[in-house]
Specification:
The chain has a seven-stranded antiparallel β-sheet. The chain has a five-stranded parallel β-sheet with strand order 6-2-1-10-22, covered by helices on one side. Helix 1 (14-26) packs parallel to helix 6 and helix 1 (14-26) packs parallel to helix 12. It is an alpha+beta fold. It folds into two domains: 6-190 and 349-404, FAD/NAD(P)-binding domain (3-Layer(bba) Sandwich); 194-345, no CATH class. Helices cover 30% and strands 25% of the residues. The protein is built from twelve helices and 22 strands.
Length: 406
């Protein structure tokens, strides 16, 4: 297709900005136009991590890293080998943005402000003289000879030697209609990071309670996750739940978000060990009330709730509980069941499962296998991750590789 003189990047989010920057570095003589349909670029970066921006995850082993991606994981190995989390850290560091690692591996700017990341990315494309077009929707994109034609909402027509599409996911299939002329297969989108609504469960009364290490299983599926679990006024959230929603995205959509989960509230999995601990407590504090004396390091409100759930009276003393009730308590701690009826998605930070079929993208270069000269980056393809900085890492890596136009 000859020398690359004009490059178009569609989408002013994380992947689009990184793709434009990479294209500028790898093709310094080319002119680059970056299109964003809204007036605000990097909107998702702005709200990420509660406004702090969870830039990446401190995972240096790529075989471990790809396990955070329910869709596309193994295929992403090649782009992660070209640009991994360490490369992300170094990239921002070279531009004066230092990142810090939190206990759970998530990484944020030391300023704890997403604006730091936004300013860095905007400064980068300004440095490379990328032309930014805001409030500019793409009406159509189609090939014409050796070029790609872009028609915009401002009645402008552009011709490019290469196009990088980085418009992110869409909650509806209709959001991909503008790509029809590229002849790609679209995997229908469904939400992939959401909390579980439990309108008929009393546990909602414990809103605000956090269990630091719970295990969640979704009945009728192979899905099993663990991590912190947060009880909310609508049901359950936290990393353990969000991971389950991500890995179960398509399955749970098929179930119309009506299903049952089983929660293991404690890390100890051996029933006889837990029973022994309860019996020892009964021997040690026989006259104490079971409601008010919690030996298992659970939040006290949750402990009291579980005792109530078993129907054990609040005035029952440890030596009055009996082995049968202790066995029931052990079962509840290891296998507590809750009915889920609906979901709540994060409107500003929504993540979808779906997009351009992975079978139609060369994940070593991010070029389309269907249409030469067309590249993709970010959530526009059927790749998504659990919470923790992994979705942004896929955006940085995919943008960097797509920008090579290899």
């Amino acid at each position: 297709m000859g020398e690359i003189k004009k490059i178009g990047v569609i989408g002013g989010g994380a992947a689009g900005f990184f793709a434009a920057s990479s294209a500028a570095v790898h093709h310094p003589s080319a002119h680059i136009d970056l299109f964003e349909k809204t007036s605000n670029v990097l909107a998702k970066v702005k709200v990420s991590g509660g406004g702090r921006c969870n830039v990446t995850h401190a995972c240096t082993d790529i075989s471990t890293l790809i396990k955070a991606y329910p869709r596309g994981g193994k295929g992403l190995k090649s782009i992660f080998y070209q640009f991994d989390p360490m490369a992300t850290i170094e990239w921002f560091n070279q531009r004066g943005v230092e990142l810090k690692t939190e206990d759970d591996g998530r990484m944020f700017p030391v300023t704890d402000s997403s604006q730091t990341i936004i300013d860095c990315l905007v400064s980068e494309i300004e440095h490379h003289k990328v032309t930014l077009h805001t409030q500019t929707s793409i009406l159509s994109l189609y090939p014409e000879g050796n070029h790609w034609v872009v028609e915009t909402s401002k009645e402008d027509t552009f011709r490019f030697d290469r196009i990088i599409v980085a418009t992110g996911g869409s909650p509806k299939l209709k959001g991909f209609d503008w790509l029809n002329a590229t002849n790609h297969t679209i995997t229908p989108p469904v939400p992939s990071l959401f909390t579980f609504n439990m309108p008929n469960e009393k546990i909602k009364e414990l809103m605000g309670v956090v269990v630091e290490e719970a295990t969640v299983r979704i009945e009728g599926t192979p899905i099993k996750t663990n991590g912190p679990l947060l009880i909310t006024h609508w049901g359950m959230s936290g990393p353990a739940i969000l991971k389950a929603s991500s890995f179960g995205a398509r399955l749970l959509a098929e179930k119309e978000y009506q299903f049952t989960i089983r929660v293991q509230w404690i890390q100890q999995t051996k029933a006889d060990v837990i029973l022994s601990q309860l019996l020892k407590t009964a021997d040690a504090i026989p006259q104490k009330l079971i409601h008010k004396n919690n030996p298992l390091n659970l939040p006290n409100r949750l402990w009291s709730f579980l005792i109530d759930k078993l129907g054990i009276p609040s005035n029952r003393r440890w030596n009055e509980v009996g082995k049968k009730n202790f066995n029931r308590l052990v079962e509840l701690l290891l296998n507590d069941r809750y009915s889920v009826a609906g979901k709540t998605t994060f409107k500003e930070e929504f993540v979808t499962c779906g997009g351009i079929s992975l079978e139609e993208v060369n994940l070593k270069t991010m070029e389309s296998k269907v249409a030469k000269g067309l590249y993709f980056a970010g959530e526009i393809i059927d790749v998504d991750a659990v919470t923790g900085g992994y979705n942004f890492q896929a955006a940085w890596s995919g943008g960097f590789v797509a920008g090579k136009l290899g």
